[in-house]
Design goal:
The chain is mostly helical. The chain is built from eight helices and two strands. The chain is 55% helix and 2% strand. A hairpin with a 2-residue loop joins strand 1 and strand 2. The structure holds heme C.
C-alpha cells in the first residue's frame, strides 16, 4: 500500500471506529435473527410444500444413467471437457483440481489484491474476474442442463433395425451400456467412446462378441450373457451408423 493510501485508510478506520457500531452485540444479533429466520422458513417450507420423493430406488437397475442436481451441472459438464482421456483424469480434474484451484484463488485473493479501493467500478480487474467466472459457471450449467437424459426405456433414436438388431438394442439397454456410451446423443458422454458410428469400423460379429466377453477395463465383461444375446448385441452395435442410423 502506498503511504498516502495507508494514511487515508487509517483515517477511515479511526472514523469508523468512533462512529460505527461494534461487532458485538450488533452484528452478532443481526446475524442470529437472519439465521433464525432462514431455519424457520426451511422448516415451514418442509411442512407446507410437500416435495415429491419420486420412485423407490431400485438397487438392481442397470439402465440408470445418473445425473446430478442442477447446481452440480457445471462440474458434470467439466467431466465432459476432460473426457476421452483415461478414466480417472476427468474425475480428478473436474471434482478436485479445478474446484480446488478456484477455492485456493479465493483464499489467496486478499493477499494478491491489496489495494484499499472498495468501490467496485474502481476495481476493473477483480470485477472482470467475477464476471468471467460467473459467466463461465452459468454457461457450463446451461450446457449440463442440455445433456440428453438417460437411456430411454423405449429404445434409442436409431431406425432401420431388423428383428435381430431390435433384440440387440434391448440387450444394450437392459445391460446399461448407455451408462458409459452414447448412441445418437442418448446415453452417457463417457468414459466409453460414442458408439453412434461404431459400425464404420467394420468389425464382424465374432470380433465384437470377443470384445464384449473380454473388453479392456473399465468396461466390464459381458461373458455371462447368453450366446444368442451376445450375437444380437454384436449385430446391433456393428450396424450402428451404417445399417442402422
Ligand atoms: C463401465 C463403463 C462401460 C460399460 C458399462 C460398457 N462399456 Fe463399452 N467401453 C467402455 C470403455 C471405457 C471403452 C474403451 C476401452 C478402451 O478401448 O480402452 C469401451 C469400449 C467399447 C467398445 C469398443 C469401442 C471402440 O470403438 O473401440 C464397444 C463396441 C463397446 N464398448 C460396447 C459396449 C457395449 C455393447 C456395452 C454393454 C453391453 C458396453 N460397452 C458397456 C466402457 C463401458
Amino acid at each position: 500500500m502506498k503511504p498516502a493510501d495507508k494514511r487515508a485508510y487509517d483515517k477511515d478506520y479511526a472514523n469508523a471506529k468512533k462512529t460505527g457500531k461494534p461487532f458485538f452485540p450488533y452484528a452478532i444479533f443481526k446475524d442470529t435473527i437472519i439465521a433464525g429466520l432462514t431455519v424457520v422458513s426451511i422448516i415451514v417450507l418442509a411442512i407446507v410444500v410437500k416435495v415429491e420423493v419420486g420412485e423407490p430406488v431400485n438397487p438392481a437397475t442397470t439402465d440408470f444413467v445418473p445425473r446430478p442436481e442442477w447446481y452440480f451441472y457445471f462440474a458434470f459438464e467439466l467431466l465432459k471437457i476432460f473426457a476421452n482421456q483415461d478414466v480417472l483424469t476427468p474425475v480428478i480434474m473436474a471434482t478436485f483440481m479445478v474446484p480446488n484451484i478456484m477455492i485456493i484463488l479465493l483464499v489467496v485473493w486478499p493477499f494478491i489484491d491489496r489495494g484499499p479501493e472498495r468501490r467496485i467500478w474502481k476495481r476493473p480487474f477483480a470485477m472482470g474476474l467475477v464476471v468471467i467466472v460467473t459467466g463461465m459457471l452459468c454457461y457450463l450449467t446451461y450446457l449440463g442442463a442440455q445433456t440428453p437424459a438417460g437411456v430411454a426405456k423405449g429404445g434409442l433414436p436409431v431406425s432401420g433395425l431388423d428383428e435381430e438388431a431390435t433384440k440387440g438394442m434391448a440387450v444394450y439397454i437392459a445391460n446399461g451400456c448407455g451408462s458409459c456410451h452414447m448412441v445418437a446423443g442418448v446415453g452417457a458422454p463417457g468414459p466409453g467412446p460414442d458408439l453412434t458410428n461404431e459400425g464404420a469400423k467394420g468389425w464382424d460379429n465374432a470380433k465384437m462378441v470377443a470384445w464384449l466377453k473380454a473388453p479392456k477395463a473399465p468396461m466390464p465383461s459381458y461373458a455371462s450373457l447368453s450366446p444368442a444375446d451376445l450375437e444380437a448385441l454384436a449385430t446391433f452395435v456393428n450396424g450402428l451408423g451404417t445399417k442402422y442410423k
